[in-house]
Amino acid sequence: MATARIRSATDGTELSLSLANDRPREDGYYLAHLRGPSLSASVEVYDLALDGIVAFFAGLAEQWRDGWPGEWSHSSPEGHLQLKATRDKLGHIFLRVVLTDRMGSGDWEAAAMLNLDAGQLPEVAAAVKNALGGP
Q: Which of 61, 59, 63 is nearest to 74 (CA)?
């Protein structure tokens, strides 16, 4: 099972994405893990055909040179994973990751900011596409 690892350039905080428990892509489920110096959280995410998350990272990789106004965002249909990317003029990308579980036995939210270098984005987009599949 392939895993996409998106690591912050500053403190090693990492978001990893992989298909859920070896389910086929067609089921639409994947796992999101957020780990950092004082954080560890995981949630199963449902996202119809998984194309939304793959397109989010592909778009970041394509648009970072020209930039985008405000935030570039993605949220899974049930809100388990929310991503918001902003950038500065020096090519730093700030990716806010929020994992939420309001449907299981608990009710929790975990969040972290990943600081990415723009040069990482094509590799990140390719890793997400490899792990989750997509167009």
A: 59
Percent of the chain with pLDDT strictly greater than 90: 59
- The domain that holds 13 is classified in CATH as 2.30.31
The Cβ of residue 123 has, within 10 Å, a number of other Cβ atoms equal to 12
The 3 state secondary structure assigned to 117-130 is: EHHHHHHHHHHHHH
Amino acid 130: pLDDT: 93
In total, how many domains does the chain have? 1
Domain residues for the domain of 61 are 3-132
Tokens standing for 67?
């930039």
Residue 125 CA to residue 83 CA, distance in Å, equals: 14
Please provide residue 6's backbone torsions phi and psi, each rounded to the nearest 5 degrees.
-115, 105
Angle between helices 51-63 and 121-132 (to 10 degrees): 160
The residue type at 17 = L
The whole-angstrom separation of Cα 16 and Cα 27 is 19
Answer whether 5's CB lies under 8 Å from 120's CB: no
